[in-house]
Amino acid sequence: MVPIRKEDQQLRMVGNPVNRLSILCVSMLAFCVLIVVGMVVADIVYLAGRDLSAIEIWRLFSSEKVLRALRLSLITSLITLVLVTITAVPAGYALSRYRFPGRALINTLVDVPIFLPPVVIGVSLLAFFGSGIGSGVKQMLSGAGISLISWIGIVMCQYVISMSYGIRSVKAAFDSELLSREEIACSLGCTPWQAFMRVSLPLARPGLIAGCILVWARGLGVFGPLMVFVGTGPRVQVMPTMMWLELSVGNIEVSLAIALMMLFMVGAALGVVHFLVRDRSLL
After folding, report:
1. Which of 6, 9, 72, 85 is 20 to 30 A removed from 239 (C-alpha atoms)?
2. For the chain, where are the alpha helices, taking DSSP H only?
3. What contacts 24+ positions apart, CB below 8 Å, involve 112-116?
4. What's the rounded Cα separation, in Å, for the pair 241 and 236?
5. What local confidence, expressed as pLDDT, does residue 273 receive?
6. Which CATH number fits domain 64-276: 1.10.260.40, 1.10.3720.10, 3.40.1190.10, 3.10.580.10?
């Protein structure tokens, strides 16, 4: 089979004939894009229709409580990203490359947090730290002056929720690269560690970047477990919980301001990723 050059593939994509299949597919793509665009436009139009002055709109975005929630969300989500990266890269590599007894069961357990209702994660964390080993850990932390009703509890919730996304993204990134390349590197004198660092990681970079963004965005939007495990006190209000609290008392303008900030941050992060890997397929 004659290989198709990348330039030829791009030309074929651009020159696809118009037929029923292409019309259906492009229409569904346009529909999905319009949903996202429509939500953003609706938020902006609603704020614009509230007859707020430019100063009042600026105050919505720059108030101290909104900035405090923004700082806490960014700090905790970035800490979560670091923790997930440290654990998900070797865990995802193990699922991609190694065969061992119980692998199918472990694959299933890794996916459980993805399909569980988020509130269940919060209830499970409460149960864990309320009895058995978890209770002892909680007492040790309390003895050291560390409370779980703080940024630590927020990071725990974000980590448990986003861990599975990280492992699954890393596994997919390594699955897309041929094992034979690592074997060739080892046959040329590399140790398994050197083959992993010099061959596997660089080749899987686009998928790993995509996984990092997915983990960060998922952590940024965690809501249900936080409501159950750490509550909604002023010290632990991140953007999702503050948005819900403001909406519950009728301050929809503040909620929309937070929603727009979250949309902008996630959109900007995804834009940076697509720019950095624009010459390679990301997902």
Report:
1. 85
2. 6-14, 20-48, 54-62, 64-97, 103-115, 118-130, 132-143, 151-175, 179-187, 192-195, 201-203, 205-220, 224-229, 239-248, 252-276
3. 112/164, 113/160, 113/161, 113/163, 113/164, 114/164, 114/165, 114/168
4. 9
5. 67
6. 1.10.3720.10
> pLDDT for 141-193, tens place per residue?
888 888 888 899 999 999 999 999 999 988 888 887 767 788 788 888 888 88
Average pLDDT along the chain:
83
pLDDT at 56 over 70: yes
**Euclidean distance between CA atoms 119 and 228, whole angstroms:** 7
**69 with 263: CB under 8 angstroms?**
no
Type of residue found at 245:
L
Domain ranges of the chain: 1-49, 64-276
Q: What is the pLDDT of residue 85?
A: 93
Q: Among candidates 164, 154, 152, 166, which has minimal Cα distance to 224?
A: 154
For residue 10, the model assigns a pLDDT of 46
Residue-wise pLDDT for 217-254, tens only, equals 888 989 889 988 998 888 889 999 999 998 888 888 88
183: tokens are 């074997």
Kindly give, in sequence order, each residue whose CB lies less than 8 Å from that of residue 160, ignoring residues fewer than 6 positions away: 113, 121, 125, 225
